[in-house]
Amino acid sequence: MALQGDLDGAIARYRMALQTDPEFLDAHNNLGVALEEKGDSEAAKRQFEECLAIRPTYARYHFNLGLVEVRQGQLDSAIAQFEEAARLSPDWNEPYYSLAAAYNRKGDAKAASEALQSARRAAKTDKTAER
Predict the structure, then answer these.
(1) What is the pTM for the complete model shown?
(2) Which of 20, 53, 48 is nearest to 34 (CA)?
(3) Taking residues 86-100, what's their average pLDDT?
(4) Exposed, middle or buried by CB within 10 Å (0-12, 13-18, 19+), for 49?
(5) Which of 76, 77, 80, 118 is CA-nearest to residue 97?
(6) Alpha carbon 33 to chain centroid distance?
(7) Which CATH class is domain 57-131?
(8) CA–CA gap between residue 47 and residue 53 (Å, rounded)
(9) How far apart are CA 39 and CA 28, in angstroms?
(10) Contact between residue 52 and residue 40 where contact means Cβ atoms under 8 Å apart
(11) Model confidence over 70-92: pLDDT tens digits?
(12) pLDDT for 18-33, tens place per residue?
């Protein structure tokens, strides 16, 4: 729904779904993405945190939370989220690329370079496993 451009409609539907099932993870995650697209980073962050409260070992939720935190300028927290996503799903290259970008923004060229090397290794082995 959100990808079709009707963010308000998507947000309303995800919220209705969560009234029915407050632990519906896809609704929390998709609501977070839609809220971030609308520019409400704080509300998006709460949705990803809710996902992690329910399922703390799912890499995608750590990754999404990290993306929001980068946009909010919370680089240290974002780095921790990307590192956890990479630890949980080491063959997924996106967290490593995001780590590299965050380290670069912090001015840590060595850590950024190491993250890029990890991203390249992960890209060679990525089997698009569930994240």
Answers:
(1) 0.88
(2) 48
(3) 96
(4) middle
(5) 118
(6) 9
(7) mainly alpha
(8) 10
(9) 16
(10) no
(11) 999 999 999 999 999 999 999 99
(12) 999 999 999 999 999 9
Residues 107-123: tens digit of each pLDDT: 999 999 999 999 999 88
Q: Which two tokens stand for residue 16?
A: 């209705």
Residue with tokens 């240290």: 76
Task: Identify the residue whose tokens are 């519906």.
Answer: 24
Distances (CA, A) of 11 to 2, 26, 130: 8, 13, 24
Does 3 score more than 80 pLDDT?
no
Tokens of 19: 């009234």
Answer whether 1-55 and 57-131 agree in fold.
yes
**C-alpha neighbours within 13 Å on the C-beta side of residue 47:** 26
CA neighbours within 13 Å on the CB side: how many for 31? 25
Where exactly are the structural domains of the chain?
1-55, 57-131
Q: Tell me what the mean pLDDT of segment 41-68 comes to.
A: 97
Domain 1-55 in CATH 3.40.50.720? The answer is: no
